[in-house]
Amino acid sequence: MASGEKQTSQYLTFSLDHEIFALNIETVREVLDVSTLTRVPRMPAFMCGVINLRGSAVAVVDMRRKFSLPAADETVNTCIIICEVTIDGEGTVLGCLVDAVQEVLELDRQEIEPPPRMGTRLETGFIQGMGRRGEQFILLLDLDRVFSTDELLQLQRQEPGRSTEQVPAV
After folding, report:
1. d(CA 23, CA 3)
2. Which residues of the chain have pLDDT under 50?
């Protein structure tokens, strides 16, 4: 790359509890309206269930629960971001239930600050960096690190065909 050229990346921004988060657009496949979820027994509390995505069962995670945020009622803006995460070197499709999708934001590398150091007691390894839009910070997530390998393997092994219950989306 010639000197003077900027290196930019695109991020899909979304909100959770009035905070703005972002995922690298390369990990995002599509954004869906919330549909009927099938609950799967013995899944982690943050998992809403699975949806039928063109004939395939896709696990859906409530990102509010995953980040220990207060529960919220579903609104017309609530949606599911279909993403690809890596589990043991293999791509897996996962749905992320979020309050609302905002926009696709382009950030130059110089506009991204490293994750804040918050001491040794708080885990911030899932934060890829901090972007900024005006005075507001945007938490850039590394989706592969949001979930532990054990959590992702458990989601990958779920079997939606056994003793499941159809319920309306959360």
Report:
1. 27
2. 1, 120-122, 159-170
* pLDDT given for residue 112 in this prediction: 86
> How many CB atoms neighbour CB 128 within 10 A?
21
The residue whose two tokens read 């239930």 is: 97
DSSP type of residue 67: T
Q: Give the helix ranges, DSSP H, for the chain.
A: 63-66, 143-146, 149-157
Reported as half-sphere exposure (CB side, CA atoms, 13 A), residue 68 has a value of 1
Structure tokens at 103: 């926009």
Phi, psi of 66 (to 5 degrees): -60, -35
Long-range contact list for 157-165, CB < 8 A, 24+ apart? 158/40, 158/43, 158/50, 158/57, 158/59, 159/40, 160/38, 160/40, 160/50, 160/57, 163/41, 164/38, 164/39, 164/40, 164/41, 164/49, 165/38, 165/39
Nearest-Å Rg of the Cα atoms of the chain is 17
> What is residue 116's DSSP assignment?
P
In the block, residue with structure tokens 């803006």 = 77
0.85 surpassed by pTM: no
Whole-number Å distance between alpha carbons of 83 and 25: 9
